[in-house]
Structure formats: C-alpha cells, structure tokens
Amino acid sequence: MTEILVLYYSRNGSVARLARQIARGVEEVAGCRARLRTVPPVAPVTRTAEPPVPAEGAPFVEPADFDECDGLLLGSPTRFGNMAAPLKYCIDGLGAEWASGTLAGKPAAVFTSSSTMHGGQESTLLSMMIPLLHHGCVIVGIPFTEPALSSTRSGGTPYGASHVAGSGDDGRPTDDETTLARALGRRVATLAAKLAS
C-alpha cells in the first residue's frame, strides 16, 4: 500500500476540510492510502505539552509518519503571505529527517486557505515548497490540463490547492476548489505509486 501523508495545521477548519478532500483524491488511486495528520498549536509562552492525540480530528504527526510515507502534502492557513507558525515549527524540527534523506525523492505538494482572494495564497504555497526542496522532494503542482484551474473564481492555483474562506470564514470549499484539491491528491498519489514501484 502506498502511503501519502497529508499533514496540515487548521485553526478554523478550512484547511482541515481541504485536507479531507485531498485525502479523498489520494484514495481514488488504486493501492494508495491517505494518512491525515496535524500539528499542535504553538504559543509565545511556554505551556505544558499537548496530549499525543487531539480530542478530535487527525492525530498529531510523529517522526514515523515521515519515514513511512511515500508522498507528502503540506497544508496551512495563509498568514501574511506565509505558512502558519505551527506548521513552520514542525518543519523546523525535521533536522534528523533532512540529514538522513527521509523525504528525498518523494513527491510533495502544498495547499492553503485564506480569508480573502488576495490574502497571499500563492506566496504561501511557494514558501511552503522551499523546505520541501531542501529535503529533496519532487514538487508537484496542478497543471492547466485540469479544467477547473481555468474556470475557478475562488481558490486553486498551479502551485497547489487553495480555498478562499471569505469574510464570513466559510470553511466549505467551492466545487472548483474541491475538484482541484482532489486532483492534487490524485496527482501526488499517482506519482508516489509509480516511484515506489
């Protein structure tokens, strides 16, 4: 079974909903399974450690998840054109995985959500790719052969899947956003399965 790690941080649920659509796309590829994981929040003050498994939703990521995955998708809310601190904190802690080449050669993609159409989605997606390149991942985007990429009036870019929550923080992806998220999941899973064989 080809394992695809769908790792995300979601504060209000929009990124989590997008992650579930991506996981659906992964599991549409024969022999592939999505492993949904999240990261704990961070705070400017020290506090007690989070429990090993959140009360609800995806469990927290562990080092074994990186070892055991054949592909990776990273998701984060857009924070001033960059990824959110909890995901960055997780990535910053992957020194041992970087040194051992754990992610080298594995396909990887990124996804995000923002409150506004011009909230910095593309710069967030691009900044999330940089550490993946340092880890030796094979970056996967969404090609314009996906018709929804040309018709979307909300989220979705060639750099990765995205969602525009709007001022009301609507966490439900539009039809085009859902289509593109699932397409990205399928694309990473298909490439991972080919590389694994």
Unreliable stretches: none
Percent in strands: 15-25%
Beginning-to-end CA distance, first to last residue: 11 Å
The helix-and-strand class reads alpha/beta
Helix content: 25-40%
Q: Can you count the beta strands?
A: 7
Return the string of H and E elements.
EHEHEEHHEHEHEH
Tell me the radius of gyration.
Answer: 16 Å
Shape: globular
What are the key terms here?
globular; 197 residues; alpha/beta; 7-stranded mixed sheet
Written description of the protein model:
The protein has 197 residues and is α/β, with parallel strands linked by helices. It contains seven helices and seven strands; from the N terminus they run E-H-E-H-E-E-H-H-E-H-E-H-E-H. It has helices at 14-27, 63-68, 85-92, 95-100, 121-134, 147-151, 175-196; strands at residues 2-8, 32-38, 71-79, 82-83, 107-114, 138-139, 161-164. Strands 1, 2, 3, 4, 5, 6 and 7 form a seven-stranded mixed β-sheet that branches. The protein is globular. The mean pLDDT is 92.
Quick recap:
The chain is α/β, with parallel strands linked by helices and 197 residues long. It contains 7 helices and 7 strands, in the order βαβαββααβαβαβα.
Helices, strands, pairings?
Elements: E1 2-8, H1 14-27, E2 32-38, H2 63-68, E3 71-79, E4 82-83, H3 85-92, H4 95-100, E5 107-114, H5 121-134, E6 138-139, H6 147-151, E7 161-164, H7 175-196
Parallel strand pairs: 1-2, 1-3, 3-5, 5-6, 5-7
Antiparallel strand pairs: 3-4
Helix pairs in contact: 1-7
